[in-house]
Design a protein that fits this description.
0% strand
Length: 100
Amino acid sequence: MPDQLEQQPEDQSADEKTVRHLEERAQLIDAARESARTFDKAVLTFGSVVFGFSIAFLKDVAPHPAPDTLRWLGIAWALFLAWLTYHTHVIPVWPTSLPV
């Protein structure tokens, strides 16, 4: 083990460590961005499925719902759309979500 430590020159190891650190940091930031993109795609896909399922349910299973239920369904869709907009536009640019 002491032989392995002696193989690295002392003067260039600090510069090499800094370069390796910056490269690894860039790779981690890229991985975090890709993970966020994948999560966004999954959330949007889920939202589309839920929206399509609710339309199909209204069309095929309950073609004549009570008027109050349509209002609640519209409110739920509007809130879901607001959450998706917030999630995809506001959170990615929020200062605490940026890498340090």
